[in-house]
Design brief:
By secondary structure, this protein is mainly beta. Helix content is about 0%, strand content about 50%. The chain contains no helices and 11 strands. A hairpin with an 8-residue loop joins strand 9 and strand 10. It is globular and about 40 Å long. The termini are far apart.
Length: about 120
Amino acid sequence: QVQLVESGGGLVQPGGSLRLSCAASGFEFGNYAMSWYRQIPGKELELVAGIRWFRDTTDYADSVKGRFTISRDNDKKQLYLQMDSLTPEDTAVYYCAKMRGSTLGSGQDRRGQGTQFAVSS
């Protein structure tokens, strides 16, 4: 059974940094692309960052490019999102997602319950 458990949310000041983690279980983690999505209040679910299984190829939404870094540890079955230079516009619930295949274009299969953080002074 696929399980994805996010952690690392909270409150951070503008300009600050935060790292989200996602513990995965119930599938061969290293064989799948993984992604982070976010739901900003009042807006649709947004794909923030994705990472393929092969050579850790990554992709980012324009809104976070240069500020966020997605990474994975296949041995530990962990997915990470390092977020720097945070702004109030980054306030959202962040979800870890398993993709259907090895590429980001394969589509979302499952996602976790989400972790929320707010950027505020």
